[in-house]
NYN domain-containing protein
Amino acid sequence: MEDKRYAVLIDSDNVSAKYITAILDEMTKYGVITYKRIYGDWTNNQASKWREELLANSITPIQQFCNTAGKNATDSALIIDAMDILYTGRVDGFCIVSSDSDFTKLASRLRESGMEVIGMGENKTPKSFKAACSVFTSLEILLEQDTDKAKENISQKTIEEAIVEIITENENNGRKTGLGELGSSLLKKYSDFDVRNYGYSSLSKFIEEMEDTFILYKKENTILVKLRDDNLKREQLEAYIRECVEKSNGEGVDLAAMGQKLHKKYPDFKVKEYGYSTLQKFVSHISGLELITESETVKRLVEKKESDAEPMIAQSQKTTVKKRKKLKS
């Protein structure tokens, strides 16, 4: 399945240049960016910070002079370009980056044409524009998430975490991860990623060195990558959790306390490595145990009790067996 194609259109008058890395990184989750355009008056000194980012991120600047005071010519240019791109039929969606409500009608019109519209803007963005988009993301949140990511000289640990995220997302959607797809996803996320920077001649060699985390295997003519399934460790975790619940003498164990016990006994334990976003979801899949909600903040893990119907069914089955034995005799 081919990646969706998006046009990213940025209103420089209403968005700070400090968000550009976070914007482009977020869009790799949706698909491939085929248009990268930014609109503004580049003769204006206020646009100087954006000018520094244009070449580094291969963004096409669209010049729009402010011919009339009080009129936002930038908005008009962006809207006209968006409709032109729509009629080319070359994209599957748009990303409109602005904190201005003037693009509300544009977002609605694009969605009427079957386009997905990803909106991005600061927290001050009016609700009307947010509601008109298919998805709206706060730039402040993206910037906070992006703070710890290095723009250059990406650490091998960062790449490893990105690979785990890609494989886990595919597995959650019932898909396997091919080596080629993995390489493409990494390049979309980090355009300057090159395994040679880490001393390897190929991506497969790079991944083979992380044998504690990943497994490479071949199916037909395709090389696939998966997370190493540490079944033994998972069994140990589940056994330990059951042991803690059994020792509670029927009172059960508070979920938060269970989390502290797990991290104390297994310092490297990370619930996301087992395909779950929270500890609550992890323990909910352990047979023989159930989670009881006592209040909005208190959840307790207890042994699952058999329903009244189960013993009755079992007793009925035993009675039937006894009757059959008597008939045979």
Summary: Residues 41 and 69 are 13 Å apart (CA to CA).
